[in-house]
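*** Fold description ***
***
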Amino acid sequence: MRMFQKSIFRGVVLAVFLGTTATVQGGMAVIAHPSNSLAGISQEQLARIYLGKTREFSDGKPVTPVDQRQGSAIRNKFYKTVTDKDEIAVKAHWSKLLFTGKAQPPQDLGDDDSVKAWVAKNPEGLGYVDGKVLDKSVKVLLILP
């Protein structure tokens, strides 16, 4: 009987662990280079970076954010979640900053794999990808729903 109870307990622990992993993989992951010293990033700091209001991480080190393909579902979801702006509003925001010469928008790299590969090679890099593509080549700073 005791062996049966241990087996059930292990199964429950494994199910809870796998459920948590599946939840993380189902969301968007904000990623940085593995050498980045930050343990995480707030949505407010993320919004400031992606709207060109700051060019630094919270520790003062420079940041270079990159975007997914314009018009992609993940890009739209990211900006709506982080900045509460749709793609048209974000584009208008960046047009004004470009016109005044105050900042450059994040570079459009395309898809999850391109963003992940670029961030993995650039210590100042910051990007967002579908949680399903995560691996040890990048550091996760935030999981978004």
User: Anything to note?
Assistant: The chain is about 45% helix and 15% strand.
